[in-house]
Amino acid sequence: MSGNDVRSAADALRAALGDCQPRVAITMGSGLGGLGARIEEPVEIPYTELPGWPLPTVVGHAGKVVAGSLGGVPVLGLSGRVHMYEGAEPARTVFYVRVLGELEVPILFLSNAAGALHPTFAPGDLMLISDHINLMFRSPLRGPVHEGEDRFPDLCDLYDPELRGVVRETALQLGVRLQEGVYAAVHGPGYETPAEIRMLERFGADAVGMSTVPEVIAARGRGIRCVAVSCLTNYAAGVTSEPLDHEEVLEVAVQVQDDFERLVAGSIARFE
Is 191 marked active-site? Predict the structure, then answer.
């Protein structure tokens, strides 16, 4: 997708936001679908009203921007994203990140659903991402350089240490159980085989999912600070004898929704 597409969407979104300048953007993926209801004085903009904006097709991804205030902080909630397994090229999955860059949003808080690999992690836990392993084998920065984007960004500390510290402290204060670990990103849409899970464990992964990594790389290219939390919705393949089911993912995400939303709202209020 071209820089003109990004600028057109950014211009349309800027016009809809008026005087609101978001301080934090929130990718409201699995487990955070209800966060939009907590945003005060919301302005909702369907993706269909933003030129060139990719439309999600997965259940639980509403497909709209919700702008307003959360804990006194101006925010931009992104209800739904597209994934590579939907047929999207990496550039389409990070389209919204490049729009955030045009809008000069300094912080991006991402969420996702993931399978637990670490032996002490369980479905219903939240996991703060400390680092990732990109097994999608694609970079969203491949191709022409977009204006304002770093061609060769440093990928150390992709998940901002200061923001992660705030999320940890907030979890302690709220009594929210929060794990921390390495997220492995795979292409999907099929779940991993038990052999692949054993490989990921040896690679040092603590959880596995099908999103987030392209967006974080693109955000680094634009100088946007990132923090991300996974909702561990299931055990990864082979960890138990139970078959994997997307309905289970959705059910567990609903069960932890309140804690997840409180953690995000409480953390954002303390971001600097």
Answer: no
Q: DSSP 3-state assignment of 25?
A: strand
Q: Which of 25, 30, 192, 205 is catalytic?
A: 30
Residue 221 is which amino acid? G
Q: Could you give the C-alpha distances from 192 to 120, 196, 229, 244, 264, in angstroms and in order?
A: 20, 6, 21, 10, 29
What is the spatial distance between Cα 45 and Cα 66, in angstroms, rounded to a whole number? 7
Is 187 tagged catalytic?
no
pLDDT in tens, the chain (272 residues): 567 889 999 999 999 998 889 999 999 876 677 888 899 999 999 999 999 998 877 655 578 999 999 989 999 999 988 888 888 888 899 999 999 999 999 999 999 999 999 999 999 999 999 999 999 988 999 988 888 999 999 999 999 999 999 999 999 999 999 999 999 999 989 888 999 999 999 999 999 999 999 999 999 999 999 999 999 988 887 676 566 566 666 677 778 889 999 999 999 999 97
Is there a catalytic annotation at residue 85? yes
Q: Nearest to residue 118, comparing CAs of 187, 194, 37, 207?
A: 207
List the Cα angle 242/246/251 in 5-degree steps. 90
234, 235, 253, 265: which is the annotated catalytic residue?
A: 234
211 is catalytic: yes
